Amino acid sequence: MTAAPTVAPVRTDHAAGADRTRGAAGGAPGVRALLLCGAVAGPLWAAVALTQAATRTGFDLTRHPLSALSNGGLGWLQITNFLIAGALTVAGAAGLRRTLAGKPGGRWAPRLVRTYGLGVIAAGALVMDPAGGFPVGTPDSMPPSLSWHAVGHLLAGTVSFTALIAACYVLGRHFARTGSRGRAVASRAAGTALLIGDGWAMTGGPAGSLTLAIGAITAMVWVSAVAADRLR
Predict the structure, then answer these.
(1) Are 53 and 72 spatial neighbours (Cβ–Cβ below 8 Å)?
(2) Where are the alpha helices (DSSP H) in the chain?
(3) Which residues contact 90 (CB under 8 A, 6 or more apart)?
(4) What is the pLDDT of residues 71-129, one digit of tens each?
(5) DSSP secondary structure string, 169-218?
(6) Ranges of each domain in the chain
(7) What are phi and psi of 83, to 5 degrees?
(8) Total Cβ atoms within 10 A of residue 73
(9) What is the share, in percent, of the chain residues with pLDDT greater than 90?
(10) Burial of 87: CB neighbours in 10 Å, binned 0-12, 13-18, 19+
């Protein structure tokens, strides 16, 4: 007797395409390097900024925003922190663009993350004015007028925070549409934390700089966590 020929199972275009996407995007060394940059950006910025906040003389996180660390003799540390974290974020956005292509939010989430990263770079290049007694020797009040670079810093921060909040909400929609409800809730919560923290700081409420720091770090680290998740 002649054995019946073995027929290989037919793969659907959808399944084959999904495997090609995982292999070409998530597995490509170049894309993995970009995603790794994004995964490092948020935790690195937070670690460097908080270490300075805890060790620099005269700095009080309940009174001074983390951006104020760019002033003084050691201000170059925070300026460098901004520039490096921003560049890493822009690179991470490129990785997200490739791995989220064709998926819900795959167009706008990377664009918003890139805008947020560019804003971080601008905030590093444009230093806010000394105020509120920091660095030590600065009058314990706000300056009577803002320098051009301080105005630029505020504008860069506004653009960056707005883009970061929007990115968190767009990523929340992405996760909701793809069935990851827990991640969807976490993403929206991160965006809301920054929205509330920034709004409270703008009203001049007590410990406004602290609530802003909590919100900003929460959102920044969440975007990094999403990039790390794409690495898998």
Answers:
(1) no
(2) 13-21, 29-55, 75-99, 108-125, 148-177, 181-202, 208-231
(3) 114, 117, 118, 121
(4) 999 999 999 999 999 999 999 999 999 999 999 999 999 999 999 999 999 999 999 99
(5) HHHHHHHHHTT-HHHHHHHHHHHHHHHHHHHHHHTT-TTHHHHHHHHHHH
(6) 30-231
(7) -65, -45
(8) 8
(9) 83
(10) middle
What's phi and psi for 205, nearest 5 deg? -65, 165
Residue 201 is which amino acid? Answer: A
Angle at 159 between CA 48 and CA 134, to 5 degrees: 45
What would the pLDDT profile of 46-55 be if each residue is shown by its tens digit? 999 999 999 9
Alpha-carbon distances, residue 126 vs 40, 59, 86, 201, 228 (angstroms): 23, 20, 13, 20, 29
A 10 A CB-CB count for 152 gives 17
Nearest to 190 by CA among 216, 224, 170, 151: 216
Q: How far apart are CA 92 and CA 98, in angstroms?
A: 10
User: Cis peptide leading into 43, omega within 30 of 0?
Assistant: no
pTM score: 0.86
Instruction: Label residue 204 left, alpha or beta by phi (over 0 means left) and psi (-120 to 50 means alpha).
Output: left
Query: Are 178 and 103 contacting, i.e. CB atoms less than 8 angstroms apart?
Result: yes
> How far, in Å, are 47, 58, 133, 145, 226 from residue 151 at the CA level?
26, 24, 19, 10, 32
